[in-house]
Structures are given as structure tokens and as C-alpha cells.
Amino acid sequence: MFLRPTQSLEALASAVRAGDLKAQTLVEEAVAAHETREPPLNAYVEWDTDAALRQAKRIDRRVASGDDPGPLAGIPVSVKDLYGVEGFRTRAGTPLELPSEWERPGPFIAGLAAAGAVFMGKTHTVEMAFGGVGINPHRGTPVNPWDPSEHRVPGGSSSGAGVSLWEGSALVALGTDTGGSIRIPASATGVAGHKTTAGRWSTEGVVPLSQTLDTVGALTRTVLDSAYFFSLVDGTAVPERRIGELRVGHPAATACWSTSQDDVVRVVRKALDTLKARGATVTEIAVPELDRATEAYLTSGIAAAECAAFLRRCLPSAYAGLDATVGSRLSSALDMKAADYLDALAERRALARAVEARFEGLDLLVSPTLPITPPTVTSLGRLEDYFEANRRMLSNTCPASYLGLCALSVPVGLDDSGMPVGMQLMAPGGQDPGLLGWGVAIEGALGAAPTLLRSPGGAPQSGRRS
Predict the structure, then answer these.
(1) Number of domains making up the chain
(2) Taking the model in full, what pTM does it have?
(3) DSSP state of 462
(4) Is residue 463 part of a domain?
(5) How many CB atoms lie within 10 A of CB 64?
(6) N or C: more exposed end of the chain, with fewer CB within 10 A?
(7) Residues 343-357: tens digit of each pLDDT
């Protein structure tokens, strides 16, 4: 469980750059974590040990020659199967292998490769990334490792990402987030997940779901690792924050709180109480835009229309073979009138402007990331059960996406079923550095994440993060 859990991403990369740790050693440990895992967790749709070891050896040779391979030197990275990565096929969760043009790396992947990242493999995704549960009837559903007795969903659509981190086969797991697809699996598997502000990082070279809402980013073991990853990709420093200066808005009357399970709410409220005890100011606040955004995201059809149009234009063979969990939700999208689509975009812009005023005097809005315990796969056999679970799993995260906010899921404990609980931090669009600064401070105030120091079944793990 977790690769070198007491060492930060920055510390490991620095050790490789200094020659104190071999990139090959890190990668061999990641390979062993994946290949010896019994039973397998099915995080990956494609895995290449030989390619990863070749990358690691090249990095070690560069270090030995006095060259600096970069701030991600030797770091094992898993990649959601929407990204083009040299040497790997792209399927986007479909039964097909997409045309070779979708294997070409975009700027995001190219930048990580230049920084020394080692790409371990392609992780599972929901078909076309269109779903928050994590199920894929075509390619298989990764196992949420927190329940050793039943196959629970890992959260989606970046369904293999959090599982790869827990397994120890990656230290950074690349995902995409359109309505929660980084934050949901982060919460469900007990890791950190950052949704960047839409448009901040290029989505070129990534199979799209929604040109309006898509973002690229990563899940990491800790918020500290997320901050390091953000800084090196963005070129922007994450500021240091102090909990005593934190001002949190608690929208208790919104559905994000009122419809969440009681045990989930208790865990997140306990985290808020700890922050208050450490000097943070927590204020109940009315934010009706969150509920309006949830309804609009789930009914406006923006993502569905944009996905359906992309498939018809670029991947018509994939459209015909969509599973009912995805295809039935796209079936009427092409019938959407242009005027209705434009009205939906206008409504989104208006709500986004309105919510900006809610942050006056506040740094963050806070809610549970997931309102429910991740359900078992067997409980979702009927389409209506799947659709209800999908709606609920998206309901707390999609408002931030729809409103143009940046957001972060921080693991804060376990629910009554022993499954991880995430606390979602939301900040105004463009304030990603500040959001991560507060996230690091919150992580420090709450102590080592219970999910990082506990294994499924409750067995404690030794050590603390550094």
C-alpha cells in the first residue's frame, strides 16, 4: 500500500537528481507493487515494464553524467487512458483502439516527460470519461482496495488513477476532471485530487468530453505532493498559508451537505472543528448557486452535447458501440437545439459571476467531496440504479466545475463502512496556487491523513509523511 509513503514527491525526485536514489530502484519498486499484487486491482488497461525500466535507466545515466533530468526525475506516473503517450495505445474506455493521432503527446504530457517522469501505463477510465461511478463494462472496473470483501467502485471517470496510487505502482496519477473525475476517485480511494481552473493547462492531446468544462491534472498521495506537482507544471509558486488566517465558508443549507450521508458529514464536520480549534474561522453561509449549478450541470446537456458532437465528427465508429450506461445519456444530445445550447452556456456564465460575490471575506467554500459510500458493483446491475449512483456521486463536485471554480479533495477520515471520506475545498477560478497553499496548511493541521496511515480493515501503517 503506497510507494514509500513517508517520503514526499519532492524528496524522492531530489534524491534521484542528486544520485542518492536510483530511478531504476523507484521504478522496480513500482513494478513489483503492481505485478506481485494479489488479487490484482485492475488499475491499468495497458502496462509496460520494459519501457518504464528503459526510461529509468536513461535518467540514471543522465545523472551519472552530471546532467539534471528534471524535477520529476524517476517518478513513476500513471496516465488516464485519454492522454496520448508515445508507445501506448489510446482507447478512451471504448472497445476500440483510437486512430494513431490520439497517441501523440500534447503539451502536458510532453512537459512531464521533459521533467523526468516515467510513464508506467494507461489506467482505466469510464467510457469517454462520461460518468462519476467508475464502471466500464467494456474494459473492466478497477477494484477499490479499501473493501477487501466486496468489489466497490473506485470512483470515476479517472477510475484507475487513485487505485494505481494506493497500489504503489505510481506516485502521480494523471486524470481529467469535467464534473468531478479527479476529485471523486481521490475521495473514494483516500488520496488528494486537484481540479485546476478550466483553461489553465492545455487539454491538447487528450480525448475530450467537454470542450467547455474539461481540465487536466493529477491525483497524488498527499496535498503536499499536489502542490509540488502544480508548481513544477505551472511555473507558479504555491504560497505558504497559516491556519489561523483561514476563513472558510460552510454552506450547510445546500444539498452538498444536506443530502450527504450522516457518517460522511460527521467526518467532514470533525475536520472543520479541528481547523476551528487551530484558529481558522468557519462561517455558515448561503450559497444557492451551488444547488442551481448541480441541477444545471446534470440537466443542461452541455457536456453531453459536446461529447456527442465530437464523437459524430471524429470517432463515429466509437459512437455506435457505446455501452448503455453512456450511450443512453448521449442518445438525445444531438437533438439539442443550438439556441438551447447557447442558453445553457449563458446561464453558466451568469451563475459563475454570481458565485464570485459569495467569496467576499472568505478563502474557501467547503463540502464533503462524495456524499455517499462508494457502492458495490453488484448493486448497480440495473441501469436505473447506475444512473442514481452516478447522479449522487457527481452531485457535490459538479457545481465547482460548472461555476468555473478550482477545487481540491483532501482525505480526512473513514466513514462507518471503513471507506475513505474526502473534504472538498473550493476557491475562485484562477486561484489554484492559493487553494493548494490552504490545502497544504489544512493537511498539516489535521495531521497525517488517516487513509494514508491505515490499510483496508483498519490496520495502522507505520511512519508519517515528510
Answers:
(1) 1
(2) 0.96
(3) P
(4) no
(5) 10
(6) C
(7) 999 999 999 999 999
